């Protein structure tokens, strides 16, 4: 079995610092005079938006609902150097230029913040074409506590490099080193949130208009906290109450006493604890009551401890007691939406429309539950291609491996474009496997 290792490094400083570089060449000889050649290029990190393909994962997942209370939201980038790609320093130490701002939706609606929609023409020293500017979003703190933004001296503690040595990474074309940025605020229950990937910016006043720039422009290159941030990326999620439960047979099968309460048990909707007791059979209800009593007793014992309370002392006093925790409520706890949960709640039933299609090739594709789907092209414009969704219950298979071998490919396709299939009968592309590849990438 291959050895798998995961490690953490404090930072990964790029070899070439951000800035403007000039390369000049001058050739001198007795035969001819060659004019001096000059090349100018720029090295910089992202200062207006982080492309989606640079983001490997985020937690909690975007647009998800779940029991995330107590978690620190974080985001993972493909490049291990990304948080340090501008030379930002605090008291002479290199620190990340980006951080996460975690805001409740009620905080955004309170009037304490404003979000300005602009473009890169308002970004000082932007390298974007002024005739085709890119969108720029500014998050301003108008009033309220500045502690909602992380302090500059704490920013360096909120980013690190994850080093993973797994064989699977090579097969999935994933880097061994990635960067992680973590929020300094924790998630509370029953709250909707937005997370912003930001950097502190300063307003630069000139005769034309106000502009924004990375807040490390002083001579000492010291990075200071301001009330203005440039937003590079964002996502949202909802944290729900932990006091929701669901009878899920597949999950309960993992419980060591499942064979004692499985008789007559059926899956249920999301329930409160009282509703759960009514839906449970007698054996399961007994385990729930025992678990409730155990947890209540532990809570009372904890409250009796003198201040300051110590978790270690509490555990030592509890180790010798006879009461056993059966953990059944943990197996019944509803933790929100994930792909499995969404699929479980889908109300699927077979259906088929009657269509009079004379074209034999088209009729066969429609019988296979394929549909003509209009979509955009990368270079602009639109096209219509065949598509078959992932939740189609149809006994149909396609030898994708054989199709790859016919083309002489030795590597696993590392981009969805390789899986755009041309249907020779209809002279139309089939995007089914291309879309499935992209879906799989997003789920990793």
Describe the structure.
This protein is α+β, with helices and mostly antiparallel strands and 444 residues long. It is 23% helix and 27% strand. It folds into 3 domains: 5-239, no CATH class; 249-340, no CATH class; 360-443, no CATH class. The protein has helices at 105-109, 152-155, 167-171, 249-252, 258-261, 273-279, 282-304, 311-319, 328-332, 339-345, 360-367, 400-406, 432-443, and strands at residues 5-9, 19-25, 37-43, 55-59, 64-66, 74-77, 88-90, 93-95, 99-104, 113-119, 135-141, 159-165, 177-182, 191-205, 210-214, 228-239, 371-376, 382-387, 421-423, 428-430. Strand 19 (421-423) and strand 20 form a beta hairpin. The two termini are 22 Å apart. 20% of the residues are buried. The mean pLDDT is 82.
